[in-house]
Amino acid sequence: METQSSGLEPGLYIVAGPIGNLGDLTPRAAEVLRLADVVAVEDTRVSARLLRHAGSDRPMIPYHDHSGENVRQRLVDRMAGESVALLSDAGTPLISDPGYKLVRDARAAGRRITTLPGPSAAIAALTLSGLPTDRFLFMGFLPSKAKARGDALDEVAGLRATLVFYESGPRLSESLSAMAAHLGDRDAAVSREISKAFEETACGTLSELSARYADAPPRGEIVVTVGPPGEAAPASAENADAALLEALTRLSVSKAAGEVAKKLGLDRRTLYDRATELKG
């Protein structure tokens, strides 16, 4: 198929937009927004401001959580001969929004897909937090109901990685309190309004931050980063004996030693010898 007169090959262009400061839009992203045949956006009112900043007058099509499959299919069909730019309200599309479905269907249809890297609130907050960044897990927004939220936190409580959450001001204090209850009172950071005039990052333990925002819910886009769990204290001889005695009520000496070694992180051979003594 021939290249469009716009200068862009037909296909999908994933465009990362600013998370606050419009000056963070890359020159390449601005060029794609000016040249694309159509721009798929979450909210036309929000994206119109960015398109004006980029000098773009390209038509917009709403594409968001509530868009039906037919809207997605029409966009994929257009990619056969036109360039479609995908733009979220802020930051990198697909991060906590439904864009992955469009990419999935475009790839299945054999369309050309290009990504234009740029701002991401989750990554920006990690760089501001002062918490370990060698391993991290992006969790998006936690469920609003208490039990579902607790279940989600319990699922990752033992993961040795920094956790990254998106949150809203009215829910912030309650969510921080739930994190403290299910993850332990870890070091954390709350970053908001990143790259804007009132950018702020507050650091402390989860309980301290929960108390800070209990009576003063902040405004703006919020990212919570939570440090990994601390190192577990070494198991004592008394702990090992108690665990072995319990295991020996159910298992052979060998299997009891293996179970406790895995549970407490101790040497299996040493535990086998001790279990033999206890059994005798």
Automatic annotation (TrEMBL):
Q: Which sequence ranges are marked TM in the entry?
A: none
Broad class of the protein's primary localization = cytoplasm
The record's section on CDD domains has: RsmI (cd11648)
| Keyword S-adenosyl-L-methionine set for record | yes
Has UniProt tagged this entry with the keyword Membrane? no
Q: Where found, per UniProt?
A: Cytoplasm
* Domain RsmI HTH as annotated: residue spans: 235-279
PROSITE patterns membership:
RSMI
GO terms for MF? rRNA (cytosine-2'-O-)-methyltransferase activity
Q: Which reaction does it catalyse?
A: cytidine(1402) in 16S rRNA + S-adenosyl-L-methionine = 2'-O-methylcytidine(1402) in 16S rRNA + S-adenosyl-L-homocysteine + H(+)
The top EC class, named as a word, is transferase
Question: Which UniProt key words apply to this protein?
Answer: Cytoplasm, Methyltransferase, rRNA processing, S-adenosyl-L-methionine, Transferase
One Gene Ontology cellular component term attached to this UniProt record is: cytoplasm
E.C. number: 2.1.1.198
> Where is the Tetrapyrrole methylase domain positioned along the sequence?
12-209
Stated role: Catalyzes the 2'-O-methylation of the ribose of cytidine 1402 (C1402) in 16S rRNA.
Q: Which family does it belong to?
A: Belongs to the methyltransferase superfamily. RsmI family.
Please give the name of this protein. Ribosomal RNA small subunit methyltransferase I
Species in which this protein is naturally found: Sphingobium xenophagum
Taxonomic lineage of this organism? Bacteria, Pseudomonadati, Pseudomonadota, Alphaproteobacteria, Sphingomonadales
